[in-house]
Amino acid sequence: MGEIKMRLNFFALMRFLRISFVVAVVMSPSLVLANQASTQVNPICGTWKLLSVMDVDLGTHQAFQPYGRHPQGYLNYLPDGHMAVIMVSGDRLTPSKTTVTAQEAAKLYSQMTSYSGTYTLKSNQIIHHVEVAWNPRWTGSDQVRDYKIQGNHLTLTMNLKIKKEAIHSILVWERAGKECQNHE
After folding, report:
1. pTM for the complete prediction?
2. Is the model's pLDDT at 87 over the cut of 50?
3. One-character DSSP codes across the chain
4. Residues linked to residue 87 through DSSP beta bridges, in sequence order
5. Where are the domains of the chain?
6. What is residue 2's predicted lDDT score, i.e. its pLDDT?
7. 182 and 39 in contact (C-beta within 8 Å)?
8. Which of 8-17, 145-154, 172-181 has the lowest mean pLDDT?
9. Cα–Cα dist 45/64, whole Å
10. How buried is 122 (Cβ within 10 angstroms: 0-12 exposed, 13-18 middle, 19+ buried)?
């Protein structure tokens, strides 16, 4: 009787090991891929400093610099999938006092863009999922940008509607820090 029980335990153990082996073989490629994905460098991740903003009116093909010749700003992409951006005109008005007048506030507001949220990378596009913005109409929106990285420069392009005009916008950023690891 003891021998039969030992054989049953042996066969149960062998069956368990076969099933475990099959599960390990089936699951291992996905585990390897998941591990590779988490260790790949995310080319967008990090801090970028604004170099230029050029808008082109698609109707007239006229180019203009909405933030002036020397815009200022930073764009941050974090490894956990969050992002934040602020852009201002390089020649912004400096208010005469700490408390600004309504006219000064309107001018300052018109010379900036700022928002934050999360981001998703898809092929050559990055999608900013806006959670909070300088302009409440942007909150809850998805801002789609085509992107290209050349060396330490990131170029974002997008088509916009500004005052009923179709605009193609080109923003050039320079890496201001090191790349960080991919977010999961």
Report:
1. 0.74
2. yes
3. -HHHHHHHHHHHHHHHHHHHHHHHHHHHHHHHHHHHHHHSEESS-EEEEEEEEEEEETTT--EE-TT-SS-EEEEEE-TTSEEEEEEE-TT----SSSSPPHHHHHHHHHTEEEEEEEEEEETTEEEEEEEEESSGGGTT-EEEEEEEEETTEEEEEEEEEETTEEEEEEEEEEE-S--EEPP-
4. 73, 113
5. 1-40, 43-178
6. 52
7. yes
8. 8-17
9. 29
10. exposed
- Averaged confidence pLDDT in the chain: 81
Please state the rounded mean pLDDT for residues 45-59: 95
- Is the pLDDT assigned to residue 183 strictly greater than 90? no
Q: Is the dihedral of CA 29, 32, 36, 38 positive or negative?
A: positive
pLDDT above 90: residue 51 = yes
Name the residue with tokens 């934050």.
116
Level-2 CATH architecture, domain 43-178: Beta Barrel (2.40)
> CA 20, CA 10: separation in Å to the nearest integer?
15
Q: Residue 110 above 70 pLDDT?
A: yes
Tell me the average pLDDT across 117-133.
96
Q: Is the dihedral of CA 141, 142, 144, 149 positive or negative?
A: positive
User: Would you state the structure tokens that stand for residue 123, as one six-digit string?
Assistant: 């092929």
Tokens of 170: 């080109």
| CB 74 within 8 Å of CB 47 | yes
